[in-house]
Amino acid sequence: MINKKVQNVEEALQGVANGMTIMLGGFGLCGIPENSIAELVRKGTKGLTCISNNAGVDDFGLGLLLQKRQIDKMISSYVGENAEFERQMLSGELEVELTPQGTLAEKCRAAQAGIPAFFTPAGYGTEIAEGKEAREFNGKMHIMEEAYKADFAIVKAWKGDEAGNLIFKGTAKNFNAVMAGAATITVAEVEELVPAGTLDPNHIHVPGIFVKRIFQGEHYEKRIEQRTVRKR
User: Fold this and answer.
1) Disulfide-capable partner of 163 in 74, 111, 148, 208 (CB 3.0 to 4.6 Å)?
2) What SUPFAM superfamilies does this protein map onto (predicted)?
3) Count of domains for the chain
4) Strands, E assignment, the chain
5) Within 10 A of 172 (CB to CB), how many other CB atoms are there?
6) Pairing label, strands 71-76, 185-194
7) Which residues of the chain, if any, have pLDDT below 50?
8) Which structural domain range is residue 47 located in?
9) What does the pLDDT read at residue 210?
């Protein structure tokens, strides 16, 4: 069995270079690869195109890369909760490609499955459809969307084994599951890394064939994006 384990985040992100396209799992601050984002900030990698549902908040998640002007283009479905994201977008400093959330997920899944393109009704008749092929299916117009092409996919899982098999916990599965294997190199950071063969096959969400490198992360903050509690 191939051992995908690397010793640390520095080794996991070897080869990440300026100008690359990187997928990053997570939804808001849920299930984001905290260790890997921190390493990208430390490395100072610039000119990145990032594919992610959104860009975290101002001082956490991908917001840290935005602060350092390391992202040139964001491909996402949501721009809320991040004032710096909004400022850079409106000023023209940051190129933003807004994509319907379901389409964003499917463009990742298509890349994972080796499917070059697909048709969807989402976005037909809007700016999203400009320049894209349109066809009618069952009396309804659809537009063609191409699968993403990324250099790295960086995902976060609750548990993994040294063969790269991954298990997610709760809603942290989100975009992580469809991004694993959707790029040339997939890096998985996990909270707990166990020997290969010790995970129950029935509980595995992503098989190790989709993962190139895996490491055990540390010091997860798991910040809550908006803490809402009932008044006393």
Assistant:
1) 208
2) NagB/RpiA/CoA transferase-like
3) 1
4) 21-24, 48-51, 71-76, 95-98, 117-120, 134-137, 140-146, 152-161, 166-167, 185-194, 213-216
5) 20
6) unpaired
7) none
8) 9-117+149-216
9) 98
Q: Specify which residues 85 forms β-bridges with.
A: none
Spatial distance between the Cα atoms of 141 and 7, rounded to a whole number of angstroms: 50
How many Å apart are CA 232 and CA 223, to the nearest integer? 23
pLDDT score for 26? 96
Secondary structure in 3-state letters for 81-111: CCHHHHHHHHHCCCEEEECCHHHHHHHHHHH
Kindly report, residue by residue over 110-162, the tens digit of the pLDDT. 999 999 999 999 999 999 999 999 999 999 999 999 999 999 999 999 999 99
Q: How many CB atoms lie within 10 A of CB 6?
A: 17
User: Residue 4, CB half-sphere, CA atoms under 13 Å: how many?
Assistant: 27
pTM as predicted? 0.94
The CATH code of the domain that includes 172 is: 3.40.1080.10
**What DSSP line would sit under 143-179, residue for residue?**
EEEEPP--SEEEEEEEEEETT--EE--GGGGTTHHHH
Task: Read off φ and ψ for residue 153, nearest 5 degrees.
Answer: -120, 125
Contacts of 189 (CB under 8 A, 6+ apart): 9, 12, 33, 34, 35, 36, 154, 155, 156, 157, 214, 215, 216, 217
Give the CA dihedral 149, 215, 155, 57, nearest 10 degrees: -120
pLDDT at 114: 97
Residue 126 lies in a domain: no
Q: Which tokens is 218 given? A: 């540390």
